[in-house]
Design a protein that fits this description.
Elements lengths: L2 H14 L22 H5 L1 E2 L12 H14 L7 H6 L3 H4 L20 E2 L18 E2 L20 H13 L7 H13 L9 E2 L2 H20 L3 H21 L4 H23 L4 H22 L7 H5 L10
Antiparallel strand pairs: 1-4, 2-3
Length: 319
């Protein structure tokens, strides 16, 4: 099976959701939420992304940042065990920041830490030592990442490439995805940080639309590999929405129609169908029309404080 087919198959599994209601929490993110953590604060709110408005730069520079932003939110980027668990770069770095509530069995010590040399995710960098470290805030001071951000050095690209292919045993990223990830991290600016905001369905839907727009830019550049990565990332974002709207048939029907449209788009891109870009504009219009449907159901979904509070993780047992 070629990489495109593997990516599509994994996207399909993630988009439908890997959690059965009877076997675990209703949201994948709840599996790495520290016991006793407030699910409303952790999953109902999001930190400021610290991404300035893209003004004055070239369209190519903006496209690179958008490609990186989409890939940053996709578990498919990391592959392997991380993708199967639904973990993306954003899992540890929410909106490019840190994640004080992150606690993954076998990879964390205290909440908000991760062991980047854990054999759980890597056959390359596993060192057999339990040494979790605090998750850095990528939107904070540049020195926190301890990597040269100067584009001329390409040290950041080398760091990110090693993280994907060695720290997580992920697949080789396309050149545009790797450059985009570095461009996205470089674009994060402490001066652009703001207050935390409630997480809404439109945020996830907007991410999916951004992925498809980035796919269109990749197709315009003749880069089908990156376009497929972007569409697959959009599908995983729809999967996150699917989880949050469980039991709400009107929204679920719209989300699954949107996902089916992306399945058809993937097939066209893979086949080199020149009609793919035309299909993208139609899909975006239908996705935008889905927004008011999701907003109507949102108060009864797992975007609501009441819904999230009903699934609070149990606090740790005493001695």
């Amino acid at each position: 099976m070629d990489r495109g087919r593997r990516t599509a198959a994994l996207a399909f599994a993630l988009a439908l959701g890997s959690l059965a209601a009877s076997s675990g929490p209703p949201l994948a993110e709840m599996r790495w939420l520290a016991p006793g953590a407030d699910p409303v604060a952790a999953l109902g709110w999001q930190p400021s992304e610290c991404l300035p408005a893209m003004r004055g730069g070239s369209p190519e520079a903006a496209q690179a940042v958008y490609v990186g932003r989409v890939a940053f939110r996709s578990p498919l980027l990391l592959g392997g065990q991380a993708a199967r668990a639904g973990i993306s770069c954003e899992t540890c770095h929410r909106n490019g920041r840190d994640n004080p509530g992150f606690l993954f069995p076998g990879a964390s010590g205290a909440p908000g830490t991760a062991d980047v040399t854990s054999s759980l995710f890597s056959s390359h960098r596993g060192n057999g030592v339990d040494d979790p470290r605090p998750i850095p805030d990528l939107g904070g001071p540049r020195a926190m990442l301890k990597v040269d951000h100067d584009p001329a050095s390409r040290a950041l690209e080398t760091f990110i490439h090693g993280l994907i292919t060695e720290e997580f045993d992920g697949p080789e990223p396309t050149p545009a995805v790797l450059s985009g990830l570095a461009a996205y991290v470089r674009a994060l600016d402490p001066a652009a940080c703001g207050p935390a905001m409630p997480l809404r369905a439109d945020d996830y839907l907007g991410d999916a639309i951004s992925g498809v727009i980035a796919a269109d830019g990749a197709l315009q550049a003749g880069d089908r590999g990156t376009a497929l990565v972007m569409v697959a990332a959009a599908r995983t974002r729809l999967g996150r929405l699917d989880e949050r709207f469980a039991g709400l048939p009107r929204s679920l029907a719209g989300l699954r129609r949107a996902n089916a449209g992306l399945v058809r788009l993937e097939a066209r891109i893979r086949a080199g169908d020149p009609r793919a870009r035309g299909a993208i504009s139609g899909w975006i219009r239908s996705a935008e029309a889905l927004s008011p449907v999701l907003r109507r159901d949102e108060p009864r979904s797992l975007f609501s404080a009441e819904g999230l509070a009903a699934h609070a993780p149990l606090p740790p047992k005493g001695p």
